[in-house]
Amino acid sequence: MEAILKDPSGAVIGLDFDGTLSPIVPDPASAKIHPAAPDVLAELGAHVGAVVIVTGRPVATALELGPGLTGVPGLVVLGHYGFERWEDGRVSAPPPPPGVPRAAAELPLLLDSLGLHDVSIEDKGRAVAVHTRRAPDPEGAFAALREPLAALAAKHGLVIEPGRMVLELRPPGMDKGHALGLFLAERDARSVMFVGDDLGDLAAFDAVRASGLPGVTVCSGSAEVTALAERADIVVDGPDGVVALLRELTTAFSRS
Ligand SMILES: O=P(O)(O)OC[C@H]1O[C@H](O[C@H]2O[C@H](CO)[C@@H](O)[C@H](O)[C@H]2O)[C@H](O)[C@@H](O)[C@@H]1O
């Protein structure tokens, strides 16, 4: 933290979206960014080298659920774990992988055969996710799905990404750690902070360490995921705590 405070223009601040900037809600389509987050990110962006959101959501969805984000100067959003990039109002991405629609087409029959009728499918185009949060037994449904979904993913050249009551089938070759590492190099970062809440953010924590830069890892804490808190330098209380921490940072920058 000291390096970030001493030399803010060399700092990259990376943040996850769901569970970090946006509180967890039962229906993924009803998620909304914390109301104070866009303003805090804009203030932060005025001091640091770069603010980047690294999310499993498609870029378009993150911007739809966080409409104020489009007004944050200099913000970069890396969607689909880094496959998509939004910057200056433009999105760049490789062509979508053919395995995703094939796996998505087989999902309803698979869920039916497992007797799982209360799980929901989120088709994200470049990935497809199965959510168990609204099932009568979310943990039981998650456990029952793990192996069959891993097999379906493998059949179509995809990998499985476990998250908070969600199992996602997505293409291999990119994760939040790789995405963050590339971004740090591109920006010649001199320090880094990454804030996340879920298992997919562990790769970004690893990238902070692997960068060799002075770095801080922050967990947006929850009772649901403990693995991240164990590996974080700082644990705050969910998105409210994240916003409060970022506010403290901007206040400290304004004082110096
Ligand atoms: O990388 P992230 O920005 O953290 O995205 C990870 C997944 O987040 C979303 O699901 C999670 O949030 C939902 C809304 O609060 C919640 O209902 C669900 O239980 C959580 O797992 C999103 O729907 C997924 O596509 C993302 O991969």
UniProtKB/TrEMBL annotation:
Keywords: Hydrolase, Magnesium, Metal-binding. It catalyses: alpha,alpha-trehalose 6-phosphate + H2O = alpha,alpha-trehalose + phosphate. The keyword Magnesium applies. Pathway: Glycan biosynthesis; trehalose biosynthesis. Pfam families: Trehalose_PPase. It is an enzyme of class 3 (hydrolase). Its cofactor is Mg(2+). Its EC number is 3.1.3.12. Belongs to the trehalose phosphatase family. Removes the phosphate from trehalose 6-phosphate to produce free trehalose. This is Trehalose 6-phosphate phosphatase. It comes from Nonomuraea spiralis. The gene is otsB.
